[in-house]
Amino acid sequence: MYTIGKLSVLAGVSTDTLRYYEKEGLITPASKTAAGYRLYDDGAARRIRFVKQAQHCGFTLAEIQELLKLKATDRACCQDVRRLAIEKKLRIAHKLRALQAMSRALDDLIERCNDGEKPLDDCPILHALENTLQEVSR
Amino acid sequence: VSVQIEVITAPGCQKCARAQAELCAAAASVLGEDNLIWREVNVLEELDYAVALGVLTLPAIAVNGELRFSALPTPEQFRAVLARLERC
């Protein structure tokens, strides 16, 4: 059994993070000492590794909870987990697309300004942003 | 005028395959087989297309290039949407 401090060192996460994981239902202490200190087993350490690995792949804590729920469901199969992974990939692809659009918009702005020596009042980037804002508010 | 229906799925989804057959039959009964273009889209092979459609969950259904269902509808729901489309 591990105290929260030992588990923190073993799993490489802070004790605050462990308390947060517990609040979110991702881990639960196996028992408590007579003084009320949390004690965790190897299962909790494995679960934290799972959480960290899933976060590395972009899963949010809510999505990780869904994965863990599936893991514990007898009727679930690998296909269900695979679908969640593909849906995550879709969400990442959507974000990438939005970021690429932002990057292109910045390219347009940067291209407008080929003279960095101009005073701020004549800054074509600020002008373009202001005009866009005016267009949007109209 | 032909109606193109695309079912965007993850490959290997057996539940989707069963439901698709029912939905395809429902679509054919409303639109007529000659007016129906049915296409199954493997999301892993056409990820960019799925993203362009706005697909975030699977399976999803697009009608004439527009995302209409983010989950599989019942054949009744599907028929109702297609019937509305026919009237437009």
Q: Could you explain how this protein is built, in words?
A:
The complex is a heterodimer of chains A (138) and B (88). Chain A has 138 residues and is mostly helical. Chain A has helices at 4-11, 15-23, 42-56, 61-71, 78-112, 124-137; strands at 2-3, 31-32, 38-40. In chain A, a hairpin with a 5-residue loop joins β2 and β3 (38-40). The longest helix of chain A is centred in the last third of the chain and has 35 residues, at 78-112. The radius of gyration of chain A is 24 Å and the shape is elongated. Chain B is an alpha+beta fold. In chain B, 43% of the residues lie in helices and 25% in strands. The mean pLDDT of chain B is 90. In chain B, 26% of the residues are buried. Chain B is globular, with a radius of gyration of 12 Å. In chain B, strands 2-1-3-4 form a four-stranded mixed sheet, sandwiched between helices. At the A-B interface, α5 of A face α2 of B.
Secondary structure: number of strands of chain A:
3
Strand order of the largest sheet of chain A: 1-3-2
Indicate the structural class of chain B.
alpha+beta
Low-confidence stretches of chain A: none
Major sheet details of chain A: 3 strands, antiparallel
SSE order of chain B in H/E notation?
Answer: EHEHEEH
How many helices of chain B? The count is: 3
Distance between the termini of chain B: 12 Å
Residue share in helix of chain B: 40-55%
Gross morphology of chain A: elongated
Number of strands of chain B: 4
Helix content percent band of chain A: 55-70%
The general outline of chain B is globular
Mean pLDDT of chain B: 90
Report the portion of residues of chain B in β strands.
Answer: 25-35%
Poorly predicted ranges of chain B:
none
Order of helices and strands of chain A: EHHEEHHHH
Please report the distance between the alpha carbons of the first and last residues of chain A: 64 Å
